[in-house]
Design goal:
Elements lengths: L6 E7 L6 H12 L5 E7 L8 H6 L5 E3 L10 H11 L4 E5 L1 H13 L4 E5 L9 H17 L2 E4 L2 H10 L7 E3 L6 H5 L3 H11 L7 E5 L8 H14 L4 E5 L5 H11 L5 E5 L4 H6 L3 E4 L8 H8 L4 E4 L14 E4 L4 H12 L2 H18 L2 H19 L1
Parallel strand pairs: 1-2, 1-4, 2-3, 4-5, 5-6, 6-7, 8-9, 8-11, 9-10, 11-12, 12-13
């Protein structure tokens, strides 16, 4: 479908920290057609200093802030509707809790088409306040949002069953990545990164990139390390990211006795180089809708060891481009890691298959192409 003019799209999001949804904003905005759309981002809160705002602004995309820190803020909806009107917004795309609730209500009030991306599979056991917000979010999406994008088929099925979305209202569009960004990293970067982190060039390096939260299950990989080190005494484990679970993981490392083989790198902007310096990517997560970081790891040719939860099996086929394990079971993690670390030929074969899969299913061009068609269809219906 061809656009006759450029439409202003407001991307509403709770914050711009280093989480998965926030990081995905950059490649989407970079590749979104400027012939059809003029994007701008509106952030509701400041989280960890909103580090992704700088990367978005570097693309020439405005980043505005409304500072909506409570759903009960009675000024939130008037300020948001005024923002949409003043910027001549023609379509709203929301992501994360506050934006999904308030953004779709405001869009409906302004008679604008709205799209939401649901990125997560919520845990079954949640606090009362969280459950209230969850119900409010689902109600807002059912009543006011025109189309919902699910990032995996598993997440789509979940929301059809639990949230009560209508099948024709929710569609699956896989998250995509900028493949060239991850393929620029080479052997020189690998050696430089290892030297910086104090990792020997001949060591086998396992890496996890994640926000350090309890559902990521990193403590189970730490508990698996003694068995891995018994089989491969030169192995190292690199954890990239920050979050509220950081101190707990530090304590777990000390408790297990693997302090000299676990490196916490903190927040990094050179994730492609860190992945290129690795031999195996590990994601011991307990729940996940569609972890884009697996596509990033595949884009540099890494084999995967990951929990068979959520949308992960839509990315990793056991025995083809990696190994799938049960969530929260250290012995399965250690067995899978030992299997792949002991076989360079198997790692190379799985890495090659991973490159094919990410090309077929998880490129940013594929994702933004599908989003363009969705946007233009909604705009034409509303006009």
């Amino acid at each position: 479908m061809m656009a006759a003019k450029r439409y202003t799209i407001a991307f509403l999001i709770d914050g711009l920290s280093m989480g998965g949804a926030e990081r995905l904003m950059v490649p989407i905005l970079k590749h979104l057609s400027r012939d059809d759309f003029e994007p701008r981002v509106c952030v509701f809160q400041t989280k960890e200093g909103n580090p992704m705002a700088e990367s978005i602004q570097a693309l020439g995309v405005p980043v505005d802030s409304l500072e909506i820190n409570r759903l009960r803020d009675i000024s939130a909806l008037p300020r948001l509707t005024r923002y949409l009107k003043e910027n001549n917004v023609k379509l709203v795309h929301t992501q994360l809790e506050f934006a999904n609730i308030l953004g779709n209500i405001a869009a409906k009030f302004m008679r604008l088409p709205s799209v939401c991306t649901v990125h997560v599979l919520p845990p079954e056991e949640v606090k009362l306040k969280t459950k209230f917000h969850q119900r409010a979010e689902w109600t807002s999406l059912r009543m006011f949002c025109d189309r919902i994008i699910s990032v995996s088929e598993e997440a789509r099925t979940y929301h059809l069953d639990i949230a009560g979305f209508w099948p024709e209202k929710i569609t699956t569009i896989y998250n995509g990545i900028d493949l060239m960004e991850f393929r620029k990293s080479g052997r020189a970067d690998r050696n430089a990164i290892r030297q910086e982190l104090g990792i020997p060039e001949n060591a086998n390096l396992m890496t996890t990139v994640a926000v350090l939260r309890q559902p990521k299950g990193i403590e189970f990989m730490i508990r698996a390390l003694p068995a891995v080190l018994a089989a491969d005494p030169l192995a190292y484990y690199l954890v990239v990211g920050s979050g509220p679970h950081h101190d707990v993981l530090i304590e777990e490392v000390a408790k297990v006795g693997v302090k000299d083989r676990v490196i916490f790198a903190g927040l990094r902007k050179d994730v492609p180089d860190l992945l290129a310096a690795s031999d195996l990517f590990v994601l011991p997560t307990l729940t996940e809708a569609l972890p884009t970081v697996l596509a990033e790891a595949m884009a540099v040719g890494l084999p995967i060891v990951a929990s068979a939860v959520g949308g992960v099996p839509e990315m990793v086929t056991d025995g083809a481009n990696g190994r799938l394990v049960s969530p929260g079971v250290p012995v399965e993690l250690s067995d899978a890691c030992i299997d792949l670390l002991s076989s360079p030929e198997k790692r190379k074969s799985m890495g090659s298959r991973g490159l094919e899969i990410v090309d077929e299913k998880f490129s940013i061009d594929r994702q933004v192409g599908q989003m363009r068609e969705l946007y233009l269809d909604l705009l034409s219906r509303h006009e």
